[in-house]
Amino acid sequence: MLNFRVIIKNAVEYVSLVMVIAFFSGLCAKGPEWLSAFDYSTILGKFGTIAGTSDNFTGHGDISVRSAFLFALSIIPGIILSLGVLSVAGYLGALNAAGRIFSFILKPLLGLPGSSAFAIISSLQSSDSGAVMTKDLYDQKIISKKQRCIFSAFEFSSGGSIGVYLTAMPIISAHLNLPILLPLGIILIMKIVGANLIRAYLYVRNDEISDSYPGEERAAVLNTRKQNIEDITNIADAFISGARRAINISLNIMMPNVIMAFVLTVVLMKIGAMDFLGKIGSPLMQLFDLNGQSMVVLVSAWFSGLGGVAMGATLCATGEISQTQLAIITPAIFLMGAQLQYMGRILGVIGLEFRNYRLMFAISIINAFLSILVMKAIV
């Protein structure tokens, strides 16, 4: 006998899953105007500009603690919206549907549960939203410590890949002699490769990160989750619950980590560490038939992703690197870009153990140089 209540419940779960994926993927932004009401970027919007200028309240041209504070402040609305919507998705059962569908894909591909699909999709659009969602998955014990480490590797190398790439492409596209989506495809493949390298490492070093939770801790978390679900009686309550978690994470975790990352960046730039690394890295680039200026571009990218893109475009325009050389290093610019910032914005927010930061830095650099080999074979 058919149980119509179960059928309706499952239908709601799958419909909400489709809607949430569409919401974070950006698909709804390209349709009729009414459809954009279900698009993350459209709902999030942009800050207005100051009269007579093209700047919003964050300004430009400064790298300091003050600018870091304003930058972190500008991120908070996106985090609130992300966790609010994700909380609604959980209330409607979208996570259950995601677990049933995506486990067949994500488990063999990355060793992650299907319910992490939202965080993966979001991390490709926004590094900050992806990091917050990942932390939320871990806090609710949906993913384990090992899975959090694998997830961190996927997110840390080229954080916010699609969003950042499409934003930066206008700066560099005029100097590329290849389809502009080709480097993005290489970036996404390398992210998966890097995450699986970490996955293999953790499998070999099984004693380094425990994959289990103490029984009492897990029971306490499950009881808390059950209590929270019982307290949420409608969609509005679900959104507010997620928004409250987002505010707590933003103020107590994200903002201090962003400021710390900016402080490190300023110090290293002021003492000339970037120029020094560029000089000592020149011999390494020669192994790939690239000149020393290519290393300067990559080092610039390590400090600032968009800075590396701008540096590459400038050096190509002045003839210091060729179009072919720029094409070869383009995926690498993004794969190892903004590492100091992402240390705070991604790893710090996720809550990854500090001793594993070295793995994240190493895998990003490995991804970058593997992409150079791939691009060298293609171009």
TrEMBL record:
Name of protein: Spore maturation protein SpmB
Single GO cellular component term: plasma membrane
Keyword RNA-binding attached: no
UniProt keyword Transmembrane, yes or no: yes
InterPro entries given in the database record: Gate_dom (IPR011642), SpmB (IPR052549)
Domain of life, per lineage: Bacteria
TM spans (from-to): 12-32, 68-92, 149-168, 180-202, 253-273, 293-314, 326-347, 359-378
This protein's UniProt keywords: Membrane, Transmembrane, Transmembrane helix
Organism of provenance: Succinivibrio dextrinosolvens
Residue span(s) of domain Nucleoside transporter/FeoB GTPase Gate: 73-168
